[in-house]
Amino acid sequence: MLFILEDAINGILMGSIYGLTAMGLTIIFGVLKVINFAHGSLLMIGMYVAYWTVALTGIHPYLSLFIVIPAMYLFGYYLQDIVIKPIFKAEKDVREPITVIIVTTGVWYILDNMTLLFFGPQYRSIDDNPLKGKMMELGEIMISVPKLWGFVTATITAFAIYYFLQYTRMGRAIRATSLDRDAASLSGINQYKIYNIAFGMGTAVAGIAAVTLVPFYNTFPSVGVLFDIKGFIIVVLGGLGSIHGAIIGGMIIGLIESVGPQFMAATWTEAIVYGLFLLVLFVKPSGLFGVKYDW
To answer: From CA 91, how far away is CA 70, in angstroms rounded?
Structure first.
C-alpha cells in the first residue's frame, strides 16, 4: 500500500503543476470568452526564458521568476493588444468571435516553428540544477522535491490571483468585464485594456508554470502541445473560468496518471482521462466548479 500512497502524493503534486498550467488558460477564457489555442506555446516560451535565464546566470531556477513573470506578462499583454484586439473591435457585436480561435491557432504554429528555427529540435535541461532528481523522505515514502516546489508555487499563485480578483479595484473591473462587457463599458471600464491585462495575467501564469517545470522537465519547441491538451481537459473538468477548479482538476488528472499504471497499462490511464473529459462534457458541461452562464 505504501507505493500506492507514494504514487498518489507525487501524482497530486504533479497534478497541481498541471492545474497551474491550466489556470492561465482559464483566466483568459473567463474574461475574453475565447479559447486560446496558443497557450501551450506560451508555456513553451516561458520554459525557454526560464532555461536561458538559469543557464546564463547560474541562479536558482525559482529566482528566474523575477524575469519570467514580467517578461511573459508583457509578451501576453502586447500579443493581445497588437494581434487579437483588432479582431474584437472588428467583431464587437459577436459574443464569441470564432476568428480569435483561428488567430491563436496561427500564433501557436508561428511560435513553435520560430522557436524550432532559432533553437533547433534539441532537448535542453539545466546542467547545474540543485533540484534535479532530489527526493525527500517521509518515513518510507519518497516525495519529489521539484514537484513539491511546484505544488507550493501553484497554491500560492492560486491564492494570489483569487485575492487580486476579489479585493482589488482592477480585479473587480476584470470580474465586471467577464460578467458583462457591455455593462462594464457603460460603467467607464475600458474593456480592451482589461482584455490586455487578463491575457497578460494568463500568459504570466503560464510563465510561472514553466518555471516549475524547468527543474525536472526537458525544454524543446513542441513541449507546449503536451501540456496544452491536458490544459484543455483540466479547464473543462474543473470548470471554465474557475481558478480553484483548475488546480483541483489538475490534481485529479495527476492522480489518475500516477496511480492508474499500478493497476493497468499506461495507455488505459490516458483512456480514463479522456473518458472522464467526455463524461463531464455530457453530464455537467460547466465543469465540476464552473457556473452556468449565458455568455
So the answer is: 30
Q: Which of 236, 233, 243 is nearest to 205 (CA)?
A: 243
Cell of 195: 482584455
pLDDT at 291 over 80: no
Residue showing cell 491536458: 230
Average per-residue pLDDT in the chain?
88
Domains and CATH numbers, the chain: 2-283 (1.10.3470)
Residues in contact with 177: Cβ distance below 8 Å, sequence separation at least 6, in sequence order: 31, 184, 189, 191, 194, 195, 198
Winning range, highest mean pLDDT, from 88-92, 105-109, 185-189: 105-109
C-alpha span between 112 and 139 (Å, rounded): 43
* Cα of 201 vs its chain's centroid, Å: 11
DSSP state of 174: H
pLDDT digits (tens, 9 = 90+) for 179-214: 888 888 888 889 899 999 999 999 999 999 999 999
36 close to 202: Cβ distance less than 8 angstroms: yes
Question: Which runs of consecutive H residues, i.e. helices, occur in 214-242?
Answer: 223-238
Ordered DSSP codes for 11-40:
HHHHHHHHHHHHHHHHHHHHHH-S--TTHH
The DSSP 8-state label assigned to residue 242 in this structure reads -
The answer to whether the CB of 27 falls within 8 A of the CB of 161 is yes
User: Measured between alpha carbons, how far is 198 from 214 in angstroms, rounded to an integer?
Assistant: 24
3-class DSSP assignment, residue 219: strand
Q: Are 207 and 81 in contact (CB under 8 A)?
A: no
Residue of 25, 209, 12 whose CA lies nearest to 108 = 25
| Type and span of the H or E element at 102 | helix 98-119
Measured distance CA(27)–CA(241) in Å, rounded: 6
What mean pLDDT is predicted for residues 70-88? 93
